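Hey, can you fold this one?
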Amino acid sequence: MTDLKVDRDEHERKVVNEFCHLLEKSKQLFNGLRDLPQYGHRQWQSYFGRTFDVYTKLWKFQQQNRQILDLKYGLKRWQIGEMASKIGQLYYHYYLRTSETNYLNEAFSFYSAIKARAYYSKATREDSISGRPDLMVKKLRYYARFIVVCLLLKKMKMVRELVRELTRQIEDYTATYEPDDQLEWSLVLEEIKGFIEADNVVKVLDVELNAIVLSHRLGPLNMAPIEKGMPSFLSLQEILIIGNCSEQIKFSELTLDMYRMLQTFEREPQEEVSPLMTDTSPAPSRPPLEPAEGRLGKRDNPHKYLLYKPSFSQLFVFLASGFKELPPGGAMCVYLSADGAAGPGASLRSTDTAYDYGGLCCSTKKEPEHINKKPVTVKDMHCLHPGDLYPYSRKPLFLIVDSDNSSTFQHMPNLFGFPLVVLMSSVQVPLNFQEQRHRGNLFTLFLYSPLTAFCYICDVVESHLERWQQAEALIQKMFVDISQLIARSKNIDSSYRQFYGDDFLRLIILRFIFCSNVLRLHKNFKGCHPASQPPLPRNDFLDNSTLHKHVYDLATLLNVRARFHDASMLD
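Sure. Predicted structure:
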């Protein structure tokens, strides 16, 4: 019996030691993720793979030896939750680096399992016993991360439930500890609530008058038509989504414009039932470096960089990385949503459109002033000028500019002969829309959801699902006609046709033309129209009676025809 007890004790000691080794190794690898470069495709993948491997071993090990670890190590439920939370974070960051939306589903599975199994339920009590708020802070961070994943997956019912729970948790946290970061968590909560409210532009109701959530990612229902014989050798491979609108609502370094555009450039994720939901505990359901079943042969989403208020040096590193990673036949898109920075060009009557007319303020960072013996005019270091992007037009470049100084990009020259298109918002909008800019820019809303933007400018705040679907069908009919015009127009620049073969850029071009026609016909938007470089042929795409009729039909369906001019009254 003594020998058996010795053997059992030795086995238990080995189990605890192995668990401690795996736990420490997992923490080291996870912390090392912060040091990996955020750009490039190959520099970080092997490290991510090793991190996933260790967490998979750790998870399976604690499952297989739970009883021993409970008794000899004192394993707590919140520690199990912390492991699951780390795996969820790994999947979320893998999504950010690959733009593969199915990894969002994996992250959601882990976070929702933590909630369902109440791994953090005793965190408050254990904190109060120890007198330290560490566990409570972990719990609050878990809620904030879970909310971000749910927002990206448009699981709004879950978002609202989590917000209510987070509100209660923050109240408990502040009442128990009176912590120094009390104001910070209150601001986080305000940001989340403001973000949800601002994104709720139009309420769509089902037959039972319940609000439903619509997704605006690329899927079978909104796939844009393409005419036979159109070139399709270019595909969008790299996207930079840049946000710095000072007044715009944001959450977790995502402005509303960035949030909308990242969805616009993603395919609808496949709903998958993860094996963890039928397991007793969450565990990695698919190795992250292997393709998901059923997606072989499908083109991946284009790779994205999300840059919130980047400095000039950060922006150029990511631009150069995206440019370098472009394969043959690949195109890069740069989306800019930022406040304008004026230049002296107009007063000087300068001919230098590359730098003298200002650009976009991509960062609010202030640099130390250099001491000069003579007074000189120094341009803002973090202002992105049109000329800064000239070198990147050596490969196919698609530029979207949403700013009150977007017109400074209207003279972008095609210096190298590759496809180059610039779509620009109007520099002005009517006063009532200026006052609502914190809720996201109108131009971006049109590119994200044309029907939502149409309703917004016509004060349609509610629609029944049947009418909404009829309106979507009318827009799709208009897209079919625009597609035919693009294929047949003798005057359209060839760059549009070359980008048109890509699913995402085709949708952007169609929505831009829809936006241009709607705003030209709307009574409140005189002189507030988007522009493009190269310009679209006016007779074919802006003064086209067929396209105007589609806009009028849509307005009639939504009972807002009186808000639009007759075509004969236009300039």
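The longest strand covers residues 330-341. Let me know if you want another pass with a different chain boundary.
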